[in-house]
């Protein structure tokens, strides 16, 4: 079994796919050529993932065809995709955490008995090709994110592949791990495989891609061929891509466009503050958390957050960000250490007590934690004040008062909902995030913990959310910003601390170029060894 | 807006009544297959469940059924599957039948009745602690733990009836019969004990608490997502323990009401399994206590009339469980078809079409020129 | 007590342990396969009863224990068909369907039995024995272990084969992934629906066999509510064993031991109330649940219907 590289071009013609209320792909056509890296660019919701699902056989197009070397192929299931040599690395891991690397790779193999020997050989072969080392007997859940991704790539190429699709592969990687990935991609390309790389960061497209296709609102709005891209300077490529990505919106978004599209190195946008003159709002002294689940807990965390400051917490997903947020919000008890808020010890107070003091928490799990989808927008907006006046009187709900408050917040934050009585679960992700921000920042907020505040949102909402946070800080509010998006952290934070395996491993003052590299060094130094 | 709500009401009605009708039709067919006459059976249900003064017996049966239903609703609303109802009911019953005679001998009936009720509720609540704490602390599946505790409760109750609570005057293991004047009084002019009124009142109170108060909203949030509940600041451990305690306390209360109002004593190995019968009904009532009243009334007639009618039709009373099981099955199917229709989708999910309807098409690759 | 008597006593004791453990073992292995594939079947109490009843009736009709066992397996598959269609194919609530199967299984077997056999209660008589030459001559344990029915050996082989298959074959890997993370199986080109369907059918075979074993070999008769919660104990055993079939076998033997204690104590002269003997397994199980609460891990996707693309 070897990697099959053929000169067959994979052509998508007139792919259209509609979901209730939204056309995800609208007459998209493009060609994927072996030996080239084809970048698909576009903001969240532009239809990149749908297009990939169609290639992977997870979705079927309403109309349009996929053909390989001129033969039309009906990719009716993932099996057909695999059989045709289309390997996909999905944005969300498809590894079974409780399985070993080898078991994960053998899943889907034919035959009656599991052939470990053959699988081990194949893994060695692919590891050599990718230039990585993978322990075949490690549990998938024990692997770091970068290694998991390497296994995913090996899995995508397992049965001999002609096309490797990578869906947002860089979104959770450190700058150093992104370099590793770029090397692996180059090796795969050199083997003669076609590669489709999906990203919403323009500079990655330019750095890794041979040609670029831009999607906006489900349509193919621009293509830069290999020849064009080769002749363009970086600036020319950037201008062409930006124009396609934003269309008329480029005027509205203005200068933000380059940053939102990840075209340039990010730099801080928030006004500088004089740390010495600002009183300390929150202080954690050697705090450790104690959670019930298998989530990573924080250990011995000390930090100070001042009035009007945005403190960023950088780190790879799942390294204790949830524990830290919940520790501050009061959702998770501290096993050791103390928390001091405006000079008072709050270690023992619960969620509601801290809520009244002005400590708020915008969770990253908007759908299942932050809101109750089956309940109305209005109820969701007052859900943290259950039983309090004027919304409840002697235990009974006061619909008029709830409605009035809901209308006020809906107007103020521009939440797009048919009515306050609409079920929250039916709104878009962006509007649900606005519900969360409206609820948390109202009624005497002094400190807000925000966890991945723009994850999965469209660019306009991303822009709005960041504005809301900077405004909040400018008015004296304190923000603890946890994010996996390094650019976001650099744009918003005054200082950035790095979390790894539940500990804070480094602190960087964000006052000039080079922050990203320093943060990245802390991240890799602690996780993947210094290399 | 108005037509929308009325059509929603019609739809809700259809979704609730259709499963019952289908279950009755299919159970009729099963009876035919077994050589029994469904017409005789259903005529018998009508005769022994409604006509004459039989409706009064049906209403009397409603009181334990409805209280059990409310107990189940409280737990299910919080997404806690308390399936230990049979044991909890018997625990409450044995408090009344065993402790009752002792108390009535030494104090006024009114006071003794109150004490019996309180002890019964406490017994039920305490019995639910193990499933509740295991669920809250370790996330252990409460279905299994509450069921296992139920089997243990049944054993404990039988031991008590054969042991300390046994009436020494009779040979069969049973408790002392409580005299007429110490039982719950009848509603004047009828032979329905006031447990019926207690049950109806409880249903109304539960309805208001669940739908209009902050406590009800807290239960609903907890039921919708324990994560959201924690986020809002609810203490989930406390919530699980409290809901389980209320639920099984109410079910035990139903047992004590049933003994003091209806049965007057308790035999060993007696288990009416009201909870199994009521469980599908609370789904049909969409976990609303007041909406459960008509369903419980229906089942009370079916059970009251069905016991005699089944014997006459040559069947065993256990046939009622077949009907109840069928109601559950048809309920899920009706719900499924209703949801699919509402969304305008095909009745058959895409995955099923692919896998089951063409299970032998190995190559799904179709090439065209 | 003479030496002969105590030897016979131990022989009977061991035989009782095995007779009590086998139905549970089969049911729990069946439930394990279902749970590994992501299906929590609360209906196995009903499935066991249906398997027991069909096995009983067919054995009475044909006079063959082997055909009776086969009928039990078929009965189990038929009873599990509701779970297959409504849950695996249509994605409806497993808990509700499971309870419905239990209620219908209990109701229908009880009604049918009382309608057909109350006038002349039927017993099946002695099971066919298949003494293993040589080994069955070993004193004390020989008669207990090696003079079992051929059915016993076939069941043991079946369970061991399944234990091996779950761990070492592509089928086993697919089945486990369907319970761990069905989207992975789907993405790898497997079919979640086909894998889960196979698991439910196989689970029906084993649970049905468990019921039939209980009726034919353990009690040699049928009676309404024969299982008396055994199906639920099988679910607990499955939870505690975390999908490892060898552990299922061991814990089932512990159960058999607990049940065999009652009559054994009786022989030695202690009278234990029947209610305590009935309760004992449940008490043991709840104690095990309390002690091992932390480690009763179920597959992450247990109970969740799979729809492609839904996260």
Automatic annotation (TrEMBL), chain B:
Membrane topology: Multi-pass membrane protein
Protein name per its UniProtKB record: ABC transporter permease
A GO CC term assigned to this protein in UniProt: plasma membrane
Transmembrane segments: 12-35, 55-76, 88-107, 113-134, 143-161, 192-211, 232-257, 277-301, 313-333
Main location: membrane
UniProt entry keywords in alphabetical sequence: Cell membrane, Membrane, Transmembrane, Transmembrane helix
GO molecular function ontology, one term from the record: transmembrane transporter activity
InterPro entries, per the entry: ABC_transp_permease
CDD domains: TM_PBP1_transp_TpRbsC_like
PANTHER family: ABC TRANSPORTER, PERMEASE PROTEIN, GUANOSINE ABC TRANSPORTER PERMEASE PROTEIN NUPP
Superkingdom of the organism of origin: Bacteria
Position of the signal peptide: none
Any matching Pfam family: BPD_transp_2
Compartment list: Cell membrane
UniProtKB/TrEMBL annotation, chain C:
Transmembrane annotation, as ranges: 6-27, 39-59, 65-88, 95-114, 150-167, 199-216, 247-270, 276-293
InterPro entries for this protein: ABC_transp_permease
Locations listed in the record: Cell membrane
Membrane topology: Multi-pass membrane protein
PANTHER family, sorted: ABC TRANSPORTER PERMEASE PROTEIN, SUGAR ABC TRANSPORTER INTEGRAL MEMBRANE PROTEIN-RELATED
Species in which this protein is naturally found: Labedella populi
UniProt signal peptide: none
Keyword terms, alphabetized: Cell membrane, Membrane, Transmembrane, Transmembrane helix
Keyword Ribosomal protein on entry: no
The protein's name: ABC transporter permease
Top-rank taxon, per record: Bacteria
A single GO cellular-component term on record: plasma membrane
Gene Ontology MF terms in the entry: transmembrane transporter activity
